[in-house]
Write a structure and sequence with these properties.
269 residues; Rossmann fold; two-stranded antiparallel ribbon
Length: 269
């Protein structure tokens, strides 16, 4: 299946009840904005150790969903741009920004087809996180967009679910087994990520999305081939929320739930 077809299917999937899902999860944009204003570092604390001082930096959150990370960065003084495929996500994000009294730019577009006039250039940081790579059947075009969007010497931060967890392990009852196929290259049909935040009646009408999960080796290779210098890779332990709720207790300390990769665009000359 080609990328244009998958993107069309996934745009349709993400434009159904996302606003309601985020309201169910976080409260109204007004309610959630109050929490972010009170503690703007909470949602982005993991990234601050890599970014350092946020004020006056130009930050992009590609596939930035409901905009909570973008608003948090903006509250700390950054100039923030979000690119996401869902109009419903934009609605929640822009209301969130308005209630937090900050400005963010939010572009609704396939990240691979952003109009030239939007000028995705000269960013200090590009962030991708938590369940976005699997919407692409080829990682190279995505990482080229990321590379081209950064200033020379500036950094790309990727944080995602660890492939061992997302591709190999399954939970049945309260037992976890390695019954998946880590090396599968198959495109599969799945529920949209926020489906569990909706009522049973709403879930019954949701369209599916198409995804292709990647191995860590494929991801690292694609980032390197895009021209990046990889400076940091952490396979994260102790992240309980990354695991299914019915996972055996303590598994998060034995199996990586997430990984964080930091890479820099090479300096000119």
């Amino acid at each position: 299946m080609d990328q244009k077809t998958i993107s069309r299917v996934n745009r349709s999937g993400w434009d159904q009840s996302a606003y309601q899902a985020w309201t169910n999860r976080h409260g109204s944009p007004k309610e959630y904005a109050k929490k972010l204003v009170e503690n703007p570092t909470n949602a982005i604390e993991h990234y601050l150790k890599f970014i350092g001082e946020v004020k006056d930096k130009k930050i992009a959150n590609f596939l930035g969903s409901k905009g909570n990370k973008a608003v948090s960065f903006a509250l700390l003084g950054a100039e923030v741009t979000v690119v996401d495929i869902s109009q419903d996500n934009k609605k929640y994000a822009m209301e969130l920004a308005n209630e937090a009294n900050v400005d963010i730019q939010y572009i609704v577009s396939d990240i691979l087809e952003v109009p030239v006039e939007e000028s995705l250039t000269d960013f200090d940081v590009v962030l991708l996180e938590l369940g976005v790579l699997h919407y692409f059947v080829d990682l190279h075009p995505l990482f080229k967009v990321v590379y081209d969007s950064l200033k020379p010497g500036r950094q790309f931060i990727l944080r995602d679910y660890h492939p061992v967890l997302s591709k190999l392990l399954n939970v049945e009852g309260n037992e976890m087994s390695a019954s998946g196929n880590y090396f599968s290259k198959e495109v599969v049909e799945e529920d949209v990520a926020y489906h569990f935040l909706l009522s049973e009646e709403e879930r019954a009408t949701l369209k599916k999305v198409n995804i292709r999960r990647w191995t860590l080796g494929e991801i690292v290779t694609a980032i390197s081939n895009a021209g990046f210098h990889i400076t940091y890779l952490e396979e994260e332990a102790g992240v309980r929320w990354a695991f299914p709720v019915n996972s055996p207790g303590g598994m998060e300390n034995k199996i990586p739930g997430l990984y964080t990769l930091v890479a820099k665009k090479k300096k000119e000359g």
